[in-house]
# Entry
Amino acid sequence: MVEEKEIDSVKKISTLLEDLLLLEKYIKDLFTFFPLPVCFVSPLGVIFEVNPAFEKFIGYTSYEVVGKPIENFFEKEKIETLTKDVLESGNIEARDMIISTKGGEKVDVSLFGQVRRNEQEETTGFFIGFFDLTKIKKTGKELQDTQVALLNMLEDIEESRKKAEEEKNKTEAIISNFTDGLLVFDDKRKVSLINPQAEKVFNINNKDVVGKSILELSVFPELELIVNLVGPEIKDISRKEIPFKGDLVLEISTIPILKGDGKIGSLIIVHDITREKMIEKTKTEFVSLAAHQLRTPLSAIKWTLRMLLDGDLGTITSEQRDFIEKTYVSNERMISLINDLLNVARIEEGRYLYKPASADMAPIVQFVINSYKDEYSRKKIKLDFKAPENPLPRVLIDVEKIKLAIQNFLDNSLKYTPVGGEVVVSLKSIKKEVQFSVKDTGVGIPKNQQERMFVKFFRAANVLTIDTEGSGLGLFITKNIIEAHNGRIWFESEEGKGTTFCFALPVKEEFTEFLEEF
Amino acid sequence: MGEEINKEIVTELLKIKGEARGVHFKNDGDFVLKEKGKEGIEKLEKELEELGCPIKYGKINQFDFYPAGMRVVSLLAIKKTFDWPDEKIVELGAYAMQVSWIIKLFTKYFFSIEKTLKSAPNIWSKYFTIGEIEIEEYNSSKNSVVLKVKNFNLHPIYCLCLKGVLLGVIRMVVKSQKITCEETECIFKNNENHKFLIKW
# Structure
C-alpha cells in the first residue's frame, strides 16, 4: 500500500516536471519571439535578464549585459530618474532616452517601465521595454524639413505674389493713364481689361464688357466697327485708319501678347488721329490751292515764252533766244513740280481718280521709252528695251497713271546714271502678274536710306549734288499709283553699282479663265 | 582527490549520496556551447562517454534531480577536455545566473543583499539535496559577508564552481565593480566546513 502511494507520488512529480519543462519551453519561445527589446532590472539598477531582441538591438550578448548596471547602456541621469519614477509610481510610459550600442551608436528610444512585486508586495525589480525612435524621428525631421520647405515656398510665393501685384498695379496704372485706348483680351479672346480712354472713345463701361468675347462686343454699336475690322480671331493689324463717328478718325493696331512661344492674349490699341488728320488735310488743301493758283500763271508764262521762241511776237536775237529758252525750261520744271504737288494732294485727299481699262502693257512701255530716247542719247546712255517675246496678258490699268509711273522710273535712271551708262527696261509675265523693271548702272542708293525711298519729299543723300532740282515726289506718287492698281512695287540697289526698280500689276481675270476653274 | 579523472574515479564519484538539479548540467552545457561551440559539446560528450558517464546536455531536464557526483564528473571532464584553468571554472559557476531558469524564480529575492542572504538557505535547498548554506557573518558597513557551506564534500572542483555562483549572485544585488570571493576555509583542507568571504 505504502509502495503504491510512493509510485503515485513519483508519477505525479514526473508529470509536474514534464509540465514545468513544457512551460519553460513555451516561456522561452515567447521570450525569444518577442520583437521588442525587454530587460528586467533589479531595484538597485542591475540588469537581471534581457531578451534576444534586446541583445540584437544593443549588440551585446546577455552574458555581457546581465549583472551590469543599467546606466552602462542608457543615459545615466535619465535612467536614474526613470528608475526612481518607475519604482515610485509602478509604471512609466514613453520616456525618450538614448541607448548606447556595442558599436558605439547612440539610438533614440522610447522607454516603458513596469515594476514586478513578490507575494509580499515587495518590489523585486522592474521590466523595461523600448522601441526605436530613429525612423519616427527621421520621419518627423523629414516632415519638419518639408514643413520648413513649404513655408519657405509659401514665403517665396507670397513675395512673388506681392511683386506680381506691384507689377500688375504698375501695368494697370500705365494702361489707365495711357493716352491711347486699350482693350486687352485673354487667350480665350475675352476682354480682360479696358482702359478709361477706350471707355471714353467707345462710350462703354468697363464692367459691361470685361469677360465678354470679341464677338459679343459687336452688340455695342460703337464697337461694331472694331469687331468687324479685327475679326473673331483678332487678326494682326497695323495702324489701320478708320473713320469713326463724326469727324473722329481712329488708327487701330492689334498686337499679340506672347509668353514663350505661345500666344496668351491680344491687345487692341486705339489711337485717336483726328487732329493729325485734320492738320494733314488742311496742309493738303493749302498745297492744292497754292498749286492750282500757281499753275494758271505758269501756263500763261509758258505760252507767252513759246510764242516768243516761235517768233510769233517778232524776231529775237540769239542772246535773247538763249535766255528765253532757259526761262522756258525752268518754267516747265516749275509746272512739273506743281503737277507733282497736285497729284500728291489728290492722293492724300483720296481724289486721285483712276480710269481703269484693259490694256496691253507692251505698247505703253514702248511709247514712254520712245519719248525718252533722245534724252538718253544726248547723255550717251544706252537704253535697251527687252520686249516680251510673246504677247502679254492684259492688265486693268489707268493708262495715263501707269505711263506716269514708267516715266518716273526712267526719269530717275536718266538723272542718276552717269554718261556712258546703260539702262535696261524689261517687261514680262510671271505667274499672274505683269512685271516691269528698269535696271540702271547708276549711282545706286545707300543701304541705310533704302527704307525711306518711297517717303514723300525724301531724296537720297548721294543724289542731292547730282540733281538739285528733284522734288522727292516721283517715287511717292509711283508707289501710290501702283498700289491703287493692287500691284506691288520694290527695288534692289547697291551704291555705286546701280539700281533696279520694279513694279508688278495683277493680270486681269478673263471670263474664260474664270470658267476653267470650275 | 585531485583533478584527475578516469573510469574508476567516475565510478567512485557516482556513488556519492545526494542529488543536484538538472539546471547545473544545463549551465555546463550552455557555457561550453558559448565558449567552444557545437564541436566543443560533441567533444565533451564523447569524453564523458569514454569515461562511462554519457551525459547528453541537450536532454537534461533542468528541473529534475540527478546524482550530485555526476555534476562533479561533468566539471572534471570539462576542465580536462578543454584544459581550462581554475578561473574558467569560477566563470562557469557565475554563468549560472545567465541561463538558469530556477535562478530566475529566485530573482524575487534579489532586490536587496539582506533579502538575498536571508533566502540563501532556501535557495540552496532548491539546488541540492545535500549540504547547507549559512550566513556566518554579515557586515553591511564593511560591505562583506562570510558564507558557510556545511556537509558538502563532493570534490574540490566544486569549490571553484561555488565561488563563481556566489560571485554571480552577489553581482546581481550589489552595485560594485570590485566584488571578490575567497574561500577562507575548505573541507578538503582539513577544515570543518567551507567558508567563503565575499567583499564588494
